[in-house]
Amino acid sequence: xxxxxxxxxxxxxxxxxxxxxxxxxxxxxxxxxxxxxxxxxxxxxxxxxxxxxxxxxxxxxxxxxxxxxxxxxxxxxxxxxxxxxxxxxxxxxxxxxxxxxxxxxxxxxxxxxxxxxxxxxxxxxxxxxxxxxxxxxxxxxxxxxxxxxxxxxxxxxxxxxxxxxxxxxxxxxxxxxxxxxxxxxxxxxxxxxxxxxxxxxxxxxxxxxxxxxxxxxxxxxxxxxxxxxxxxxxxxxxxxxxxxxxxxxxxxxxxxxxxxxxxxxxxxxxxxxxxxxxxxxxxxxxxxxxxxxxxxxxxxxxxxxxxxx
Amino acid sequence: xxxxxxxxxxxxxxxxxxxxxxxxxxxxxxxxxxxxxxxxxxxxxxxxxxxxxxxxxxxxxxxxxxxxxxxxxxxxxxxxxxxxxxxxxxxxxxxxxxxxxxxxxxxxxxxxxxxxxxxxxxxxxxxxxxxxxxxxxxxxxxxxxxxxxxxxxxxxxxxxxxxxxxxxxxxxxxxxxxxxxxxxxxxxxxxxxxxxxxxxxxxxxxxxxxxxxxxxxxxxxxxxxxxxxxxxxxxxxxxxxxxxxxxxxxxxxxxxxxxxxxxxxxxxxxxxxxxxxxxxxxxxxxxxxxxxxxxxxxxxxxxxxxxxxxxxxxxxxxxxxxxxxxxxxxxxxxxxxxxxxxxxxxx
Lengths: 309, 347
Known about the structure:
The structure holds two protein chains of two kinds.
Chain A: H1 2-29, H2 34-38, H3 44-54, H4 60-72, E1 78-79, E2 84-85, H5 86-121, H6 126-140, H7 143-157, H8 170-199, H9 202-209, H10 214-251, H11 257-266, H12 270-298, H13 300-305
Antiparallel strand pairs in A: 1-2
Helix pairs in contact in A: 1-12, 5-6, 5-8, 5-10, 5-12, 6-8, 7-8, 7-10, 8-10, 9-10, 10-11, 10-12, 11-12
Chain B: H1 2-13, E1 17-29, E2 35-47, E3 51-55, H2 62-70, E4 77-86, E5 89-90, H3 96-102, E6 107-110, H4 124-133, H5 140-153, H6 159-162, H7 172-183, E7 190-194, H8 202-219, E8 222-227, H9 230-236, E9 239-244, E10 247-253, H10 254-259, H11 264-271, E11 322-325, E12 328-330, H12 342-345
Parallel strand pairs in B: 3-8, 3-9, 6-7, 7-8
Antiparallel strand pairs in B: 1-2, 1-4, 4-5, 9-10, 10-12, 11-12
């Protein structure tokens, strides 16, 4: 088990290195120049001086070696526009994003499971059909539109919740709802499908024939059997959610990682983009590792095949 | 033989009948509006300590019959008619809570495929203890003693190690043994084995039948064995009940049925069993045609279009199940009363 974790961490490290190098080169190859954005009225000579200061006049490979050398010294560069250490900038907006993402995740899992299980138990009745149709609607509504509507109705018309900024949990509610709706829909549809197929399994029928009560069959038999496909799905959904988070944070002007990423890319804030990319890809790698380890905990068959924990 | 059948008829009228199924109808109401009459008027009875073999092709309603007895027919299936008298009590009118007390305790069901009938996420021990605790509160140590006993019943001696393991760690045959043990945890009055050997290899099949036989001999539990394999019923049952398209076509004590089958379908089934003694050059006779389309049954006898003896009336009127001799019931317009199996199967 420990060797699996170490292997996965090593793999993750290599992936992050590759992502760092690719992002580094791509960022410098796309058109746009941070020095011009910083000083729009400067002369050509002034710009060259500025670029020298910023360290972006040298050949890409030289810049890259310097950057990597600095990383090993714990130096991730600084943000051109916020004039602060990249780590400090990221740490400043990480909290807001974790609250938003965590809230959306809790909503997604809770309601996705709840509605999915209800729909599966009432399969092919009007309740199931209603839930499934609503899920299709939620899944097809674009995030930015849902966000805008929430702002319009809940913040502007009803004045119940704040629309923009972040000064506490209250500010995370609306973006959290906007972020979770499509995931709730996807989860619900998959929970429904996998619960229906689990409930058809022989061992569920056998449990019924042993007189085991319905709630135990539901939890210990059917739901348990559905967990593994759902875990796989959740892994890929988390990826979509990070992407959607960028959109949601933009719509709600929510000062988190997503908004930082968006502005950093638009302004070609090279080192900040690098730092953000490392954080986000690190998140993916850790999530996928946790899910893989989760499989072995959930399924004795995988555990036995791997030769025990 | 004669003596035995007289005894049987006495008990039928007496108190020793454990299960009596009367005119059971279980239909499936498909969303498309079609109705599949999976079980359509089945009547039989089973005495205490006896083994009844239900035989028929796939789709003949054998499994649905067993699930109807347990009242675990899944939607869109519904039991729409009949009585299932178990120790004189009609299971079909019991409230669900009372029925749940009977499942796994007074009646147990063994499934076809032991590789899918266990919960893969729980150890053998957890599942057996759960099976016990569903019905009775008992300390874990006491339950483990009982588990050791039922394991012994099916020929497993070292239970300590087995209960800690997961189902995936055992072979299919061994899992079926464990499943039989689990079914016997309360020594039920009735054990229904739904194709218990179909998914197993041929040598394992014999072992499982032997294990079932041991269980029956030692506990006196009555058994219904559902199969499509004459080999299984001929080894192990007292009476045989032949199903075709959701109905009973013939029911009889085993030996009489095997020697003197009267329904053309039964004759066809027996003729299609390969015999070791048969000359190698002789081709096996199969029943012509295909199992019936349950959505589109013939108007008359369901077997009429495959039957070599069919006359006009067979295509018009469904034959009733009539007792033409004591203990021998048959649903056919032209029963082959004088047919002997040794005529062309060379037993």
